Amino acid sequence: MEQKIKNIQIIPIRPNEGLVGFASFVLNDSFYFGSIGIRTRPLGGFRLTYPTRKVGDKSLPIFHPINKTVSDLIEQEIIAKFEEIQSV
User: Fold this and answer.
1) How far apart are CA 45 and CA 40, in angstroms?
2) Whole-angstrom Cα distance, residue 44 to residue 75?
3) Share of the chain above pLDDT 70, in %
4) What is the total count of domains within the chain?
5) I need a labelling partner for 49 at 20 to 30 A (CA). Which of 34, 42, 77, 88 fits?
6) Domain of 57: which CATH number?
7) Which residues have C-beta within 8 Å of that of residue 36, sequence separation ≥ 6?
8) What φ, ψ does residue 67 adopt, rounded to 5°?
């Protein structure tokens, strides 16, 4: 099944410890994903971080891609949109 990412929304923020924005999107017209952090990479570029919930001493993931193909697709689409709005 081909994965489709739509309705990407970006909220840029004042940089704070590498965090430069938040993203949300809809996957396959079926699932909404939000609160995805956009962070700078130490050697340039950007990476995504997915939300977690702290339970005791542990941080548990709320959601995240489970294969590289989908992870790469989400990262490419969100970072492209983030760079597009940064250049405006």
Assistant:
1) 6
2) 15
3) 100
4) 1
5) 88
6) 3.30.1120.40
7) 22, 23, 24, 25, 48, 49, 50, 51, 78
8) -140, 155
Q: Which domain does 61 fall in, by range? A: 5-86
**Cα atoms in the Cβ-side hemisphere of radius 13 Å centred on 36:** 23
For residue range 57-74, list pLDDT tens digits in order.
999 999 999 999 999 999
Q: What does the pLDDT look like over 29-51, one tens digit per residue?
A: 999 999 999 999 999 999 999 99
Judged by DSSP in three states, 50 sits in: coil
Question: pTM higher than 0.90 for the full model?
Answer: yes
Question: Which residues are registered as beta bridge partners of 5?
Answer: 27
Spell out the residues 6+ positions from residue 57 whose beta carbon is closer than 8 angstroms to its own.
Answer: none
Dihedral sign (CA 34, 3, 41, 53): positive
Quote the mean pLDDT of the chain: 95
Q: Is 66 helix (H, G, I), strand (E, B) or coil?
A: coil
Euclidean distance between CA atoms 58 and 36, whole angstroms: 19
